[in-house]
Input
Amino acid sequence: MSRTPAEQANLDLVLGMFAHVLNPMDSGAVDRFIDPGYIQHNQSVQPGVQALKAFLDMIKVQSPEAVHDVKRAFVDGDHVTVHYHVRRWPGDLGWAVIDIFRVENGLVKEHWDVMQDVVEGGPNPNSPF
Output
């Protein structure tokens, strides 16, 4: 299945956001990728762009070596889904995360996410990635 030009632009936007906002935790780059009317669905996070910027600034201080290692990304119309591995410091097992973004007018307008701890051992030998 091939992507439409709009879908490719949406995928490029979200992957660019990972490269320029989430991995460097650069709150100054947020406005290039996130709509001013940003809708956050994670109930543990305050809504809005300013809250996102404050969160990035806090994480940059608390976990300056954190990485968001994208494993796969999918686009369907105006929705982009990204499956990735968050590690807060070297050696951290981290979290397996799936984010869903809705893009509107060339910016991320809406966000949902689900997370699980990455564990060693356990009954299932398959990696979450």
